[in-house]
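Could someone model FE3-S4 cluster with this protein?
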Amino acid sequence: MRDEPGTIGEALRERGISRRALLKYCSGIAAAMALPASVVPTMAQNVAASRRQSVIWLSFQECTGCIESLTRSHAPTLESLLFDVISLDYQEALQAAAGHQAEEALQVAMKENFGKYIVVVDGSIPLANDGVYSTINGHTNVEILKEAAAGAAAIVSIGTCACFGGVGAAHPNPTGAVGADQIVTNRPVINVPGCPPMPEVIAGVLTSFLTFGELPEVDHLKRPKAFFAETVHDRCYRRPFYDQGKFARSFDDEGARAGWCLIELGCKGPITYNSCATIKWNEGFTFPIQSGHPCLGCSEPNFWDKDSFYTPLSAGRWGSAAGIVAAAAAGVAVGAAASVASRVNTSRIAKEK
Ligand code: SF4
Ligand code: SF4
Ligand code: F3S
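Reply:
Sure, complex below.
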């Protein structure tokens, strides 16, 4: 069957991207979202039959790390998503247009796709002093976001800055930075935190919207459950060492060289919800802990302010062991949380000896 003119299927065919590649892409997304393999053909069919989704990407107080995370990801899967599956109608860092032409492109995209486009936000939004700390073409970030959100089908906040304020909101938060959901309250908002967020998760959320016509199910922080239901600790390959009470005490001791658990070096994996330990980074090659560094908790709110990145959980302001258990219990089985408690206590006691 030929693809209908103007559909994603036709666009992919014109670019020489085979149906097999689309199936492979959908398989990857389905696997990452823990969907059964049986949905892959339907998912691919729905994507191929869809029109390219209009996306307006607004960058506010950010470091460009989030867009780098997506565009530096491996081809053809995510590059295809960016340029073929979605219609990226406005993105300052990637579009050729600048100045007034860029502003015109934004207005045209909002008008032509009113009620249907997705607004992707990266970076926090400053509210202090009427938002003067970040403006584009004389308009504050909050004004731009409100205008774009008025015609959006949904808002996708990319990165911890756009979700929770991130580094901009770190103490003393001089610009009054907040996440997008503090401003947009009358449209569906989904948070994809991480500093930066995982490209596969961004792709999964957008593809899910294309396939099912709605955003995926979210948790209490508006994060897609498919990617944020488990902690890094739940799926960490160093977990057996944690369970055995084998902890690295410095970055160059025998435990570190043997690949033991990094909790005594400040690992926040037990209270950090993200998919790093399963999907991993750089084409599934590694993630921070596999590279020998503790998880910093980069997908959690206020992670910059909760203490030194290298302070062990049980000693820092992340909370008491009991608090850590409560946090863990919110999303994982009670048994796993109890294990966290006992090991955090064990770890602390061992250190104090
Ligand atoms: Fe940069 Fe991290 Fe903020 Fe993204 S979330 S804009 S990578 S500081
Ligand atoms: Fe892995 Fe960190 Fe958990 Fe240790 S504390 S098992 S390094 S996530
Ligand atoms: Fe961030 Fe921790 Fe993953 S620091 S990248 S959530 S391992």
